[in-house]
């Protein structure tokens, strides 16, 4: 299949990537359903994590890791969390899937006993979009 094209499952005709139906046999293409949360959520990338308040939603990636030889083993938290409180070195929160965690946001350092590198998580703040009445 050429780059930038998609083929019909029914007849095999190749067409442009934005087509909703096959121009040859009128067979509809299947698209992934977009979640309502994705449409209704605004992502804020620039904010001070120390100013987070209880109940706010964040999405975390990155964080502490361990290196053994050529293996890189991530040890940080990933996913969406609700903030409970903020302390000196990070954020205490819980996941919608269950479980409490401490999202590390302190300085980069290596633990001498475990050799785990503690690095900051990357965060984005999730806020609901405000709908305006017309």
Query: Any idea what the shape is?
Result: elongated
Q: For the terminal residues, how far apart are their CA atoms?
A: 45 Å
Structural class: mainly beta
Helix content: under 10%
Number of strands: 12
How confident overall, as mean pLDDT? Answer: 88
Number of domains: 2
- The order of strands across the largest sheet is 3-12-4-7-8-9
Largest sheet: 6 strands, antiparallel
N-to-C order of helices and strands: EEHEEEEEEEEEE
How many H/I helical runs? 1
Work out the strand percent. 35-45%
Chain oligomer state? single chain
From the alpha-carbon coordinates, what is the Rg to the nearest angstrom? 22 Å
Low-confidence runs of at least 5 consecutive residues: none
How would you describe what is shown here?
There is one protein chain. With 134 residues, this protein is mainly beta. It has two domains: 1-31, no CATH class; 36-128. 4% of the residues lie in helices and 40% in strands. It is built from one helix and twelve strands. The strands form four sheets. It has a six-stranded antiparallel sheet with strand order 3-12-4-7-8-9. The radius of gyration is 22 Å and the shape is elongated. The model has no long low-confidence stretch (mean pLDDT 88).
